[in-house]
User: Fold these one by one.
Assistant:
Number 1:
Amino acid sequence: MKYLNIKTEKETKEIAKAFAKDVKLGTVIALFGDLGAGKTVFAKAFAKELGVKDEVISPTFNIIKTYQIKDGKKNDKVFCHVDAYRLNSYQELLEIGIEEYLNYRNTIVLIEWADKVKEILPKDTVQIKIKHLEDNREIEIKE
Ligand SMILES: Nc1ncnc2c1ncn2[C@@H]1O[C@H](COP(=O)(O)OP(=O)(O)O)[C@@H](O)[C@H]1O
Ligand SMILES: [Mg+2]
C-alpha cells in the first residue's frame, strides 16, 4: 500500500489509525525515514488507535518504552515503542532486552530508525517507509 501526496499531519495520523485497525498481536513494525519525516507522529496515532491511554513520548533516551493496551478486552496486551536512533549496533538493542518483546504473542512492537537494527528484525516484519519530499510526504506500507 502506498500513500502519495500527504500534505498534513492529520493525514499521516489517519493512515496510522487505519493501519492499526488490522494489525495483529505479535507484529513487529519497522519505520524508516529521515529525521522529521513523521515516524513519531505515526507511532503516536497508531498507539492511540490500538488502545494505549498513556501519552506516548519518543523513547529517545530509554530506547525502549512499553505501554499497556487498554482496548476493553481482558487480556494484557503491550505496545512496545523503540527508537533506535542513538544505537550504534543491533547488539545494543539485544543487550537492553528487545528479544523479550519481538514476536511475543501479546505484544506489538514498533521500531523507529529500524535501519539501525535490521539484523534483528523478524522475517515477517511490516516495513513502513516515510518519505519527506519538498512539500508533501509519501508513506509505503509493505506487509
Ligand atoms: N504530513 C505530516 N506527517 C507527519 N508529520 C508532519 C507532517 N507535516 C508536518 N509534520 C511535522 O513534522 C514533524 C515530524 O516529527 P516526528 O514525527 O518527530 O519525526 P521523526 O520521528 O520521523 O523524526 C512534526 O513536527 C510534525 O508536526
Ligand atoms: Mg521520532
Note: The CA atoms of residues 26 and 103 lie 5 Å apart.
Number 2:
Amino acid sequence: MDLSVNVGGLRLKNPLILASGTAGYGVELLPFMDLNRLGGIVVKGLYPYPREGNPPPRVWETPCGLLNAIGLQGIGMEKFAREILPGLSKLDTAIFINACGEEDEEYVEVVKYFSSFDGVAGIELNLSCPNVREGGNCPALWPEWSYRIVKASREVTDKPIIAKLSPNTGSLVEVASACKEAGADAVSLVNTYLGMAVDFRTRRSRLSTLFAGLSGPAIKPLALRAVYMVASSVDIDVIGIGGITRGEDLLEFLLVGARAVQIGSITLREPSAGIRILEEAVQLLKEEGYNSFKEIIGRFEIV
Ligand SMILES: Cc1cc2nc3c(=O)[nH]c(=O)nc-3n(C[C@H](O)[C@H](O)[C@H](O)COP(=O)(O)O)c2cc1C
C-alpha cells in the first residue's frame, strides 16, 4: 500500500505528523516508539532566544479537552540546533521547525537561521499561539499581519513554509489567502481555541493567565469545519489539526481536503499514539478497498 502524501512541495512517507508543543523536541519520545515510522515531527516552538513561558498553573483538563497556557517555553534556536537537531535529523522522518517571534523580525531571524540546516525539511510559522499576547492576540487573526510575516520569511528561505493558522478569527479564509499570496507553501490548522477555566471557590482563573488554548477531542468538529472551509476555498495545501485520536479521525480530515494531519494532545496522554492512529487508518483504508491515502484527499461529497 502507498502511504505517501505530497504536501507543501514535500513528499512525506505518510500523512501523520506530530504537532508542535506536544512532542517536545521529538527526542523525548524515542523510548516510546519508532519515530522513523512517522510522516514528520514538528518540534516545540522556537524563538531566537530561550523563554520561560508563563508561570504555573499552565494546564487544566476539561471534559474531552485540555486548556493550556504554556506560553511558548523553549530553549531557543541556537541551543536546539547545537544539542538536539544533529541527532533528530538522523531520523528517517521529516523534521519541521515551529518558528515564533515577539516581533515580525524575530520570526524571520528563526526562519533564516534554520534555512541552512539540511536536517530541516520545512518551517512552520507559528502565527497563532493564543498564550503569549494580551487577550490572545496573534498574527493569524489578521490577514495583513500574517501576510507581512510570511512574505518576509519567504524572502530569506527556499525551504517549504507552512503558516499555522488560528481558529480564533472571523477571517480564517482571508488569512489563508493572504498566506498563499505572500508565498506560503501550505497552511496548517488549527492551533488552539481561546477558552477560560474559572474556579468558583477562589473566583479566579484556574490558570495563571486569563485565557488559555483549548485542544483535544472537544475541538475536533470545529477543526474539521475550519479545515473544510480553507481547503474548499483557497488553492493551497492544508495540514489538518485538532482533536485527532483515532485512525478514522485522520481519514475524516483527509476527506475534507487536508493532505496530511498533525496530532497534538493525544500524545500527552498516550506517547505512542501516532503509530496506533496510523495503523488504524491504514486498516480502515484497506477494509474500504483503497490503495493509498492520496485517493481519499478531498473526496468528501455534499449530497
Ligand atoms: C501543551 C501544548 C503546547 C503547545 N505548544 C505549541 C507550540 O509550541 N507551537 C504551536 O504551533 N502549537 C502548539 N500547540 C498547539 C498544537 O500544536 C495543536 O495545534 C493543538 O493542540 C490542536 O491539536 P490537538 O487537538 O490534537 O491537540 C500546543 C498545544 C498544547 C496542548
Note: Residues 5-296 form a domain with the TIM Barrel fold (CATH 3.20.20.70).
Number 3:
Amino acid sequence: MTESVENWDSVAEWWFDEVQEDPVYREDIGPMLEKLMIGVPEPLLELGCGEGQWLRRFGRGRKAIGTDASLSLLRGVDGEAPLVQGVLPEVGWIRSGAIGTAVSVFVLDLIEDHQRFIAETARIVRAGGALVVIINHPAFTAPDSGPFMDPDLDVFWRWGDYLEDGRSDVPAGTGTVTMYHRPTATLLTAAAEAGWSLEEMIEAPLGPAAIEREPSYGGQESIPRFLGVRWRR
Ligand SMILES: C[S@@+](CC[C@H](N)C(=O)[O-])C[C@H]1O[C@@H](n2cnc3c(N)ncnc32)[C@H](O)[C@@H]1O
C-alpha cells in the first residue's frame, strides 16, 4: 500500500469529525457536485467514498457502488450501496463499460498515478457516461503556494511550484496525508488523451460563509480553491 493510503486509515476518526463539523462540504462542495451530477447516467461508482457523505446524498434511490481503501471509513457508511475495499487507481475488479458515471471527490489529488486513474475510469465507464471529479484547486495544492498580504493589506496568492508536478504532506488531525499536485493543464491533457471530452469545469473560491467564519481567509474571495469537472465518454 502507498503511504497516503496507510495514512487514511490512521486518520479516519479525524475525517469522520471533519465531515460532521466543517460546513464547507454542505455549503460549497454539495452544490458544486449537484451541478456536475445533473443528468449523469447510472450506475454510479464513487471512487474514494470515505464515510459515505456523497453516497448518502446522491446514491439513495439510484444504482450506486462505493469503493475506498480505508476499511475504518467504509465501516461508517450507512445505506444500501454495495461497498468494495480497494486501492485506487486499481479498479481491475470492474468490467469494462459497466459504469454509467464515475464520481470522485477530494481523491484524485491523493493519487500518485493520475494517468492510470483517468485511463481506468475511461475503461470502466461506458460510451455516453461521465466522470465527475472535484479536487482542491491546483493553485492551492502547489508546494509553497499560499496567501500573502502586501503593505496595503491586499491579499494575493503566491503560485509556488505550480508549473511542476509535486507533493506535500498536509496536516490531517494528529497525522498527515500526502497530497499530489499537478498543474491543471496536466490533468486536462491526461483526460483528453484517455478519450474524455470536457463538458463542464468549475473553479470556485472558498464560499462567503467559510470566509466570514475564519478571519484568516479574508481577502481570498477571488482566489481559486476548488476545481470541479465533468467529462463525457
Ligand atoms: C478527503 S477524503 C474524501 C472522502 C469522500 N470522497 C468525501 O468527499 O467525503 C479522501 C478519501 O480517499 C480515500 N483514499 C485515499 N487514497 C486512496 C487510494 N489510493 N485508494 C482508495 N481510496 C483512497 C481515503 O481513504 C478517504 O476516504
Note: The chain has a mean pLDDT of 94.
Number 4:
Amino acid sequence: MGKVRTNSGVLVVLDHGGRIPLHRQIEASIRDSIRAGRLPRGSSLPPSRVLAADLGVSRGVVVEAYQQLAAEGYLASRAGGYTQVAAGPSPVTAGLRLARKIPPRIDLSYGRADVSSFPRDAWLRAIRGALSSAPNDVFGYLAGSGVPQLRTAIAGYLNRVRGTLAHPGQIVICTGYAQGIALLVGVLAAAGAKRLALEDPSSGDDALPAARAAGLEVTGIPVDGDGIRVDLLAESGADAVVLTPSHQWPTGSVLSAPNRAAVLGWAAERGAVIIEDDYDAEYRYDKTPVGALQGLAPDRVVYAGSASKTLAPGLRLGWFVLPGQLAEPMAEAKIAADRGSPALEQLALADLITRGEFDRHLRRMRPVYRRRRDALLAALNRRLPWLAPAGVSAGLHVVTWLPPHLDEAAVVEAAARAGVGIEGVTPYRISHPGPGGLIFGYATVSEQAIAEGVNILARVIGEL
Ligand SMILES: Cc1ncc(COP(=O)(O)O)c(C=O)c1O
C-alpha cells in the first residue's frame, strides 16, 4: 500500500494497493477538499497529464475522475483547456473574511500621502531596471541592513536634504518606521534601557506596544508650542526618547532652538538615545526647513525616515540611521525578524532617488498639498474662525484645539454620522490629559471636498 501526495498543486491521497479503484479515490479526495473549502470555487486543478504523472497513474484514471466530478457539478472545463472548481465556498468565505470598512464620504482623518499620485511610471521603470540589471545574488538572502545601493542613496539624500551625517554603513532598511521602531526598542532594552519617553500626545501606536513587550516602562512627556518639555524629560529618568522635532505629531509644533540644544545636552549628560522620527520633513510650505537633529549629534541620535508620506505607505520602506554601536544589533534584529526587506523594491527606490525621480515627485506634490492646506485654512477661517489651527506651515495635517464646552468625541462622532471622517487628539494622549482637538488630514482630499467637509463640520458643531 502506498500513499502518494502530489506536488502539482492539489493534495490527493492514494492507496495504490487498496480495493477502491484509483479514479474513485481521486474523485473522493478532490470532492472532500472542495466541500471542506480547501479547494475554493475558482481555484484551478492541474492538467490531467500533470496530476497523473505526479500520482504515478495513467492519464485516463485522472480524466475519468475529473469527468465524474464535472458531471456532479464540482468541476468545470474552461476555455484554454484547464479545469476549475465550480462549486463550494468562494475563496472569501472559505478563508478569512476581510472586514470592509466603509470609508467616510469626505475623509479628513490623520494625514496620509495621496497614493492616487504615486509615480507609477517612474516606479515601473525603476522596477524594470532593477529586475533586468540586478545580479543573481540579489535574489538570495541578503544582509539585514538592506541593499547597499539603497543605503548609499538614502545617505546621500538625507545628508543633502536633511543635513544629517549619515554613512551607508549605519543605515538599516526596515518594513516602514513601524517595524524599525519596534526592533530598535528591543535593541535598546537588550542594551539595558529601562524607560522610554514618548511625546504626549504622540502617535505611539508603534513604539508603545513594542516598548511594553520589550519590558520597558513608557512615560509620556507633554509637548507645548516649542515641542517636548525638556525640563520634564530630564526629570523622567528615561533612557531614550522618541521625538518628532521638525513637526510634532499631532500638535504640529517645531522643537525650538533652545529645546533642541537642551534635549541634546540631556542626552549627552545622561547617555540617553534620541530617536528622531522625521516623518514628514519633506513638506515645508512657509518656513525654511529645520535640519535634522541627527546632524548635530550622530552619536546620540537615531534618525528614522519612511517612504510612507513621500511615496506610499504600501511600499513599507523605512530607514534608520544609527549611531555606530547600535547599527549592528539593529541589523541582527532585522535578520531575526524577517531576514531583510524585499530587495527589488529597495533597488527600485535607490534608482528613483539616484535618478532624481524622487525629488521630482516631491516637487510635483508640494504645491498640490499646499493648495489643499490653503483650501482647508480658508474654509476653517470662513466657517469655524474660532478654531485656531496650529502646525500649519508643514506636513500633511493641521490641528485645531476645541473650547472646553465642545466634547471632542461627540464632534468626531457627529462628523462621522454626517459622512466626514476626522480624528480627535485625545486617543493619542499617553498619560497627560489636555484640551480636546481635531486632526485635519488634508493631503488626500480635493480642495472642493475639503471646503464641503468643513461646511458639514461647521453644521454638525453648530447642532451640538
Ligand atoms: C508620526 C509618524 N511617524 C512615522 C510614520 C511612518 O510610519 P510607517 O513608515 O510605518 O508607515 C507615520 C505614518 O503615518 C507617522 O504618522
Note: Residues 357-383 form the longest helix (27 residues).
